[in-house]
């Protein structure tokens, strides 16, 4: 098999992109890359170091001091920021409420896209995000665009936060954050979230994880060269 096949998965926040991407990667023997984790880790760095996202020099300087790496453990994708494991911290609300602003920044996006394209050069990967099928890998042989009812999405993310011990964030907070991120993702100037013309729409509001995986695997087998 070729060594640079990409399955691109884009879609709204919290509609199960990473669940599908991980399951597909495992079935196909591909590497899973969570591009959202990269924007979240950069955001964490900006918060910790008080980087003003509106100051181009500060952003350049910060980007030059950020090293992101992925490693897999138990089929989960982990990310390190300058050597520190931050996979848990980047899912907390402080990062979730700031990430839209940071990920809308042109310099940040340019750097992340460059790094993402490098990862797809010599490996077979499943990458999820917002602009994977449109900007990062416009020639990917298989693209999905995922969506689900916003209420269902909020409930899923709320349960996830609760299972991780977050007792301060309400369901309403999560719903509002998702609505805000959907709006920011789809209306920003730099590569907004939009469906690539050749992306397969996957609405999983009424699908189980197993059903969506079956559907996606079918599509992949039909479309991979
Ligand atoms: O997938 P996620 O919710 O963890 O992504 C976090 C944020 O990063 C999301 O609000 C939008 C942004 N993002 C992006 O702009 N482009 C990507 N390829 C991935 C994520």
From TrEMBL:
GO biological process, one term: nucleobase-containing small molecule interconversion
Name of the molecule in the record: Cytidylate kinase
EC top class, as a word: transferase
EC number: 2.7.4.25
Top-rank taxon: Bacteria
Keywords assigned by UniProt, alphabetized: ATP-binding, Cytoplasm, Kinase, Nucleotide-binding, Transferase
Family named by the database record: Belongs to the cytidylate kinase family. Type 1 subfamily.
A single Gene Ontology CC term: cytosol
Signal peptide: none
GO molecular function, one term: ATP binding
Positions contributing to ATP binding: 11-19
Gene from which the chain derives: cmk
Pfam entry (one): Cytidylate_kin
PANTHER family: CYTIDYLATE KINASE (PTHR21299:SF2), CYTIDYLATE KINASE/PANTOATE-BETA-ALANINE LIGASE (PTHR21299)
InterPro entries per the UniProt record, alphabetical: Cytidylate_kin, Cytidylate_kinase_dom, P-loop_NTPase
Residue ranges of every copy of the Cytidylate kinase domain listed in the record: 7-221
Catalytic reaction list: dCMP + ATP = dCDP + ADP; CMP + ATP = CDP + ADP
Compartments in which it is found: Cytoplasm
């Amino acid at each position: 098999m070729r060594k640079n096949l990409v399955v691109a998965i884009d879609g709204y926040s919290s509609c199960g992109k990473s669940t599908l991407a991980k399951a597909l990667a495992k079935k196909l023997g591909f590497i899973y890359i969570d591009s959202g984790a990269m924007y979240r880790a950069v955001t964490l760095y900006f918060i910790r170091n008080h980087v003003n996202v509106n100051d181009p020099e500060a952003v350049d300087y910060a980007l030059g001091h950020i090293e992101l790496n992925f490693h897999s453990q138990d089929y989960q994708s982990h990310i390190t920021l300058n050597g520190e494991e931050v996979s848990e911290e980047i899912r907390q609300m402080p990062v979730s409420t700031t990430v839209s602003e940071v990920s809308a920044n042109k310099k940040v996006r340019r750097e992340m896209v460059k790094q993402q394209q490098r990862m797809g050069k010599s490996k077979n990967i499943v990458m999820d995000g917002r602009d994977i099928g449109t900007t990062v890998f416009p020639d990917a042989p298989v693209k999905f665009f995922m969506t689900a009812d916003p209420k269902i999405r909020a409930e899923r993310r709320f349960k996830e936060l609760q299972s991780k011990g977050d007792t301060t964030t309400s369901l309403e907070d999560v719903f509002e954050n998702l609505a805000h991120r959907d709006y920011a993702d789809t209306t920003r100037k730099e590569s907004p979230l939009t469906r690539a013309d050749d992306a397969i729409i996957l609405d999983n509001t009424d699908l189980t994880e197993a059903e969506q995986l079956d559907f996606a695997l079918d599509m992949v087998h039909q479309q991979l060269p």
